[in-house]
Design goal:
The structure holds 2 protein chains of 2 kinds.
Chain A lengths: L2 H12 L4 E4 L2 E6 L4 H10 L4 E10 L4 E10 L4 E10 L4 E3 L8 H12 L2 E3 L24 H9 L15
Parallel strand pairs in A: 2-5, 6-7
Antiparallel strand pairs in A: 1-2, 3-4, 4-5
Chain B lengths: L1 H12 L4 E6 L3 H9 L11 E2 L8 E5 L4 H13 L5 E5 L1 H5 L21 E3 L6 H16 L3
Parallel strand pairs in B: 1-2, 1-3, 3-4, 4-5
Classes of the chains: A alpha/beta, B alpha/beta.
């Protein structure tokens, strides 16, 4: 199958118009509640590999865009499935039941953007330890102010000083 | 004469500096030429050891995250004292290019007692050897 066949199949099944934005690169935009069905169908079409999941923070629109980067080894095609969710209460169905490798990507996005992936078995912390602020990759997180308060205080040392045994 | 002999014997007791490397940033690529055959740190007796319990010197390279600095502190506790800690590169001194990162510590000596900083981004192997020589002189008592 080539790009046009896949776009035609998706349009026939879901009524969504895909777009070829480059040679062998397809972009499909969908509503957030229809994404799981689309993903399941795409896996049946041969998109067996989920490269990564990514979130973009569109703070002006009040929305997160979630992108799923898929690759088909059968047809040598890349497909980006994208959907938008509200950024106030970000919540999304997990695709870790379809592609097992989605689990760690969703765990990371949960930590960095605060997206709640429903159905993901483990969304515990990954990189940040003892983090009590809002997720750091949100655009309204003032990281420079946070760094100034936490690390560049005028009263001397940072917290966590290791006392030497004498 | 006898005293001289004793001093010679004592000097022989000063052992080589065995190094435990704690690198989780670009620092490892910077010390690789020192380990390798061109600069060859073993000619100074420096051997990278597998366990911090065998090490005299802990080299911490580059920035440490909030997560990794706890592991570094744990490694330091496991080392037999007296031990020497070397901070390698400008990131360990001031945060370097990560001066405004929300998750990296900015000054290593606020978390671990650091004996020596080797500045540079990256430090040249000659600078690393210069630092090690300072440590050796300190151990021998004439530095």
């Amino acid at each position: 199958m080539d790009e046009k066949d896949i776009i035609g199949k998706i349009e026939k099944k879901f009524g969504i118009k895909g777009r070829i934005f480059r040679e062998r690169r397809i972009s499909v935009k969908t509503e957030s509640d229809g994404l799981i069905d689309l993903c399941r169908y795409l896996k049946g079409l041969g998109f067996g590999h989920l490269s990564t999941v990514s979130v973009t923070d569109f703070i002006g629109d009040g929305e997160y865009e979630i992108l799923y980067f898929l690759w088909s080894y059968r047809d040598d095609l890349a497909l980006i499935a994208r959907t938008r969710i509200s950024r106030e209460e970000p919540s999304m169905d997990s695709v870790s039941g379809i592609w097992e490798e989605a689990q760690i990507h969703e765990r990371e996005l949960h930590e960095l953007f605060g997206v709640e992936f429903r159905g993901n078995p483990d969304l515990s912390g990954l990189f940040l330890e003892g983090w009590d602020q809002k997720p750091p990759f949100r655009k309204d997180f003032d990281w420079r102010e946070y760094v100034r308060r936490k690390y560049y205080r005028n009263d001397g040392r940072e917290r966590g000083y290791f006392e030497v045994e004498k | 004469m006898m005293i001289m002999e004793d001093a010679k014997k004592l000097k022989r007791l000063v052992k080589s500096v065995w190094v435990f490397n704690w690198f989780n940033s670009c620092g490892f690529t910077e010390i690789l030429p020192v380990v390798g055959s061109r600069w060859d740190m073993e000619r100074f007796g420096m051997i990278p050891v597998a366990s911090p319990r065998h090490a005299d010197c802990l080299i911490i390279a580059g920035y440490q995250t909030e997560k990794s600095i706890r592991r570094a502190q744990r490694i330091y506790r496991q080392m037999p004292k007296p031990a020497v800690v070397i901070g390698l590169g400008s990131c360990s001194m001031s945060g370097g290019m990560y001066w405004d990162s929300y998750n990296t510590i900015k000054r290593l000596s606020d978390y671990i007692p650091v004996d020596l900083y080797i500045p540079g981004c990256p430090p040249r192997p000659e600078a690393i050897f210069g630092g090690i020589m300072k440590i050796v002189q300190k151990v021998k008592g004439n530095g």
